[in-house]
Amino acid sequence: MLNTRLPAVSNAPPIQAAPVQRDSDGYWTHPAHPAFGEDQDEQASAWFAAQQLEYHVAYLESEPEDHPAALAYWSDAGDSNISTWEPPRPEGEGWFVLSIHDTEDWGPVCVWVRRAAQQGKGGEA
What we know:
The protein is built from 3 helices and 4 strands; from the N terminus they run αβαβαββ. The protein is of the alpha+beta class. A hairpin with a 3-residue loop joins strand 3 and strand 4. Mean pLDDT is 85; it is low at 1-8. Residues 1-36 are annotated as: Disordered.
């Protein structure tokens, strides 16, 4: 099954930084990011490899306990609005946001990516 999808994945144009326009709750996904299902780890890995991307995940749960978004998200009210969270950019150059989304196990995360072959070159938020 992976082999039937890999050519389309490997022929995809290189993903570039895009303006991050978060929704009213603070979430966003890059428009060129394929929608992989939970059972498509191999396809997702193939896409990252074909795109020559490395990634870094920032977790809302790593913020101080008194961070407004963390307080609201993990309160008894369970407010899913994380718009006050500004995920920290990883060290180094070339990073851009691939997705800011909620996960079942870790809560809100921000996936930062950069082209592994272009480390050391400038990037955009």
